[in-house]
Structure formats: structure tokens, C-alpha cells
Design a protein that fits this description.
Layout (H helix, E strand, L loop, with lengths): L2 H8 L3 H10 L6 E2 L5 E2 L2 H15 L4 H12 L5 H35 L9 H7 L2 H6 L1
Antiparallel strand pairs: 1-2
């Protein structure tokens, strides 16, 4: 099948198929006499794997590691679990950072009168020097 068909069957855009191939996540595929890429069920399955891993927020580096483990039938599941748990820890860290951002913005919004006057503590905080903002 051509790149458009592989993209449609995997749920990945043709542009991303080329990108994943360029990154080495998808092995180089055969080409027709005219130079068009030709994909088979194995490549579509790999593209679906990559798409699902991206939906779960894994980085390209993590996906590359997971793909190698997926393709290695002698892998240790402990290696896969290690990557997954590291990803969970990273998600927890990012969630905590975002919760902190949310609290800061809520506090700033509560301090803002929200009227027709030009003074605004939200803009004042955003414009404050880094040292001042860090103390707040």
C-alpha cells in the first residue's frame, strides 16, 4: 500500500509517517520502481503502536526504546515496566507543576478587580523581574 493508505489505516498522517521513518522509528520500507514507498501490515501495526504511545504522552526517545523492546521477543518485561514507571513519575511531576501554575493564576485572578480600570495585578506579576516573581 502507498503512504496515504498506510496513514489512513494507522491513524497517522502521511507527514508523520515520513517523520517517524526519518527518526528511525519505522524501518526503511521498500520502494516501487517509480520510487514510491510501499507499506505492508507490519509497518501499519508499528505506526499504530507509535500513535498509541504518543497518545499516552511517551517521548520519541521512550517510544524508540519501547519499539526495540516490543520487537525483541527475548526482552525482559521489567525493562518495559521501568520505562512506563519513569513516564508515570514524569507525568506526576508535570501535573504538580501545572497544579502550581493553576493556583498561581487563580490567586492572581482573585486579586484582579476585573473592572474598567487599567491597573491589573496579573499583568504586573507577568511584567515583574524574575526575582520579584519568584518571591511571590
Amino acid at each position: 500500500m502507498n503512504i496515504g493508505e498506510a496513514a489512513a489505516q494507522s491513524g497517522v498522517s502521511a507527514k508523520m509517517v515520513r517523520h517517524y521513518e526519518g527518526l528511525g522509528l519505522l524501518t526503511k520500507v521498500a520502494r516501487s520502481d517509480a520510487g514510491y514507498r510501499q507499506y505492508g501490515p507490519a509497518e501499519v501495526h508499528t505506526l499504530r503502536f507509535i500513535r498509541r504511545a504518543r497518545e499516552l504522552g511517551f517521548s520519541m526517545k521512550e517510544i524508540a526504546e519501547l519499539l526495540k523492546l516490543w520487537q525483541n521477543r527475548r526482552r525482559a518485561s521489567a525493562d518495559v515496566k521501568r520505562i512506563a514507571l519513569q513516564h508515570v513519575a514524569d507525568l506526576d511531576r508535570r501535573i504538580a507543576e501545572m497544579a502550581g501554575m493553576r493556583r498561581a493564576i487563580q490567586t492572581l485572578a482573585a486579586c484582579c478587580q476585573g473592572n474598567d480600570r487599567p491597573d491589573c495585578p496579573i499583568l504586573d506579576e507577568l511584567a515583574a523581574p524574575a526575582a520579584t516573581a519568584a518571591r511571590a
